[in-house]
Design brief:
The structure is a single chain. The protein is an alpha/beta fold. The protein contains 16 helices and ten strands. The strands form two sheets. Strands 1-2-4-3-5-6-9-10 form an eight-stranded mixed β-sheet, sandwiched between helices. The longest helix is centred in the C-terminal third of the chain and has 39 residues, at about 355-395. It is globular and about 80 Å long. The two termini are about 40 Å apart.
Length: about 425
């Protein structure tokens, strides 16, 4: 389906206003103030599933790769939920990794934000992306206020989604808050993670005694205004004016997608993703110490991750996240594969700022994972053949079943991963 074929819901024009081009922060806030006054005539957010689907389909129609979209039914503590999911459909002749790639978006995002990545990544993987529990078109439960319980709900949602799709092992990629969730999931379920990719992850560093690197001015201003409320309360307060307000506050977002998405489409999509009553954003709030820092920093736990799980960090060179945690993680995991990639010319949204280089790095991991899997199989076959030959020749002592299983489970994948890391 093309963007032109998408039929807008009744009363909604398919054309949207062109986003503002001004970069002036204070001009944006003066304009925002006038919107706030005029929004009294429309104080309630527009919550319409048809509108979310309309803007989502206009974005997904840009993909050249065939895909299918569906809701995945899961249960957590007996409660039923649904997860909005897309799955790319690679051609049988495509040279794809044996392990699927699963994409987890960041705060207030949805599957559409990966529109500039899905085509390229589908050349090397079967790709899954989903609206996280509490975001977008997925179900919106009440998240517990306890930080441990809130994190556990995010993790369990991913696990139930994986189990429902019968995915044994996956290459798991998370951006920003999605990176935090991916790492938290890997700590609990390492047996299902073939490779962990953390794209500019949130929530890793411990809060420093002295803060030297501040978020952008627009972010600090919004934090100050919204401190007493749920994180996206202001967005909902503007109702139908919210996309235009977003365009004023964040004109850079439109520029990031300007070669793919027309007019105000991205802002309409972001607004409608988040117009419903808050859910995951409150779960996020329960995990936060002070905006940039988590109550339970991941750097204090990542050393406990199973050493057989390789990690790749991908940072934008101009991000406001703390890049040093990538190297610190490497130091905490001396016997594991930890790679840190810095992408020039990219900020926090590294997956779109320099999407070609980001896609290349993630494609490269597919080759590494495939080579490791092949080496693992060949090593297991070699060990099995050596045991069989020794038994035939009568030179092998009796081997217990557990010992034989241990021999066949030799981690050849780690050997390959370590070799690639050493080669740079």
């Amino acid at each position: 389906m093309s963007a032109d074929d998408a039929i807008p819901p009744e009363g909604l024009s398919p054309e949207a206003a062109t986003p503002a081009q001004s970069d002036s922060f204070w001009a944006s806030w003066m304009t925002l103030g006038s919107f706030w006054r005029s929004s009294a005539a429309n104080p309630h957010p527009i919550v319409d599933e048809d509108r979310i689907s309309y803007y989502e389909q206009r974005i997904l129609s840009k993909l050249a790769t065939p895909f299918r979209q569906y809701m995945v039914a899961i249960q957590i503590d007996g409660a039923p939920y649904e997860i909005n999911t897309i799955e790319t459909l690679p051609d049988e002749s495509d040279d794809v990794c044996k392990y699927p790639l699963v994409l987890i978006h960041g705060f207030a995002g949805g599957i559409g934000i990966f529109v500039k990545n899905l085509d390229a990544l589908a050349q090397k993987y079967k790709v899954y992306a989903f609206d996280g529990l509490g975001w977008g078109k997925s179900s919106r439960p009440d998240f517990p206020k306890d930080s441990d319980a809130a994190e556990a709900l995010f993790v369990e949602a991913i696990e139930q989604w994986r189990a429902a799709l019968n995915i044994d092992k996956m290459v798991l990629l998370g951006h920003s808050f999605g990176g935090y969730q991916a790492a938290a999931y890997a700590l609990v379920h390492p047996q299902h993670v073939q490779h962990l990719i953390l794209a500019d992850p949130w929530g890793f560093p411990s809060k420093p005694a002295v803060i030297t690197r501040q978020p952008p001015l627009w972010a600090r201003a919004i934090i100050a205004v919204l401190r007493p409320f749920s994180p996206l309360a202001l967005l909902r307060a503007f109702g139908s004016y919210a996309p235009s307000v977003l365009a004023r506050i964040r004109p850079d977002l439109a520029r990031k997608f300007s070669d793919t998405l027309e007019n105000n489409l991205l802002y309409e999509y972001i607004y409608h993703l988040n117009a419903k009553p808050p859910s995951a954003e409150l779960g996020f709030l329960h995990l936060v110490n002070v905006f940039r820092w988590a109550r339970r920093p991941m750097i204090e736990r990542i050393g406990n991750l199973d050493s057989n799980v390789p990690i790749t960090f991908i940072y934008g060179a101009h991000t406001w996240m703390d890049i040093s945690v990538g190297e610190l993680t490497r130091a905490l995991r001396p016997d594991s594969h930890v790679d840190v990639q810095i992408v020039p010319g990219a900020g926090h949204h590294v997956y779109v700022d320099q999407h070609d280089e980001f896609n290349r790095l993630v494609q490269q991991i597919a080759t590494m994972v495939s080579d490791a899997a092949t080496a693992d199989v060949e090593l297991s076959q070699s060990v099995a053949q050596a045991l069989a030959d020794a038994v035939t020749e009568g030179t092998a002592p009796p081997v217990s079943a557990p010992a034989a299983d241990a021999a066949l489970a030799t981690p050849g994948a780690n050997a390959v991963a370590g070799g690639l890391e050493a080669d740079g």
